[in-house]
Amino acid sequence: xxxxxxxxxxxxxxxxxxxxxxxxxxxxxxxxxxxxxxxxxxxxxxxxxxxxxxxxxxxxxxxxxxxxxxxxxxxxxxxxxxxxxxxxxxxxxxxxxxxxxxxxxxxxxxxxxxxxxxxxxxxxxxxxxxxxxxxxxxxxxxxxxxxxxxxxxxxxxxxxxxxxxxxxxxxxxxxxxxxxxxxxxxxxxxxxxxxxxxxxxxxxxxxxxxxxxxxxxxxxxxxxxxxxxxxxxxxxxxxxxxxxxxxxxxxxxxxxxxxxxxxxx
Length: 265
Fold this sequence. Notes:
Mean pLDDT: 84
Distance between the termini: 43 Å
Number of strands: 0
Low-confidence stretches: none
Helix content: over 70%
Shape: globular
Number of helices: 9
Order of helices and strands: HHHHHHHHH
Radius of gyration: 19 Å
């Protein structure tokens, strides 16, 4: 899919970043004034419309993709909106608000502003992956929140986990494709096993005395480590365990430290 720019305008990405940040401040101001959670979809449509309009008047260097950026922002805005919805403390609210304002803006800043600066596409892709991870955090946290607030009665309590797992599965497949993994039978089989494992882990962790935000962070870290290792597994070079052991140790230390200092709510 290719989205072309507006023929008479071509803003520098830095200018677009400033405009995006200012407009996202308006979105953050508007969010708590929504008359009901059902208007969350309207907020998301406005957020995506702003990003889409800016993308049409912004210069994209060869190799940069408007479509991929907008898909990333669509998922990130949805996840961040869910995080704003379930934020249960001022710290969580302000942290998520900063992400809403700065996350998309930094993505524009990382876009190459000249055709010869295509090396900047790698940092931009990594930043989009980070925004996607925050979208995954929103999905897991809201799914756990639905169970926490008993919005569904047994046995339908497992439906949020199932829907969340399927959404994260689609995101995992998309990002494997972004990093050049062939979408063949082996990839789909790996994805199926990975999703089954994630569904079992999230279901079992639902019995732990974790709050929905704490659960969301823990599941997102587990998802990212699993996704990354399977990405290497599906690549021609395979997994270099000597190098990836530092990833596993770092992720384990980060998760353990996080669970040790947060309140279990």
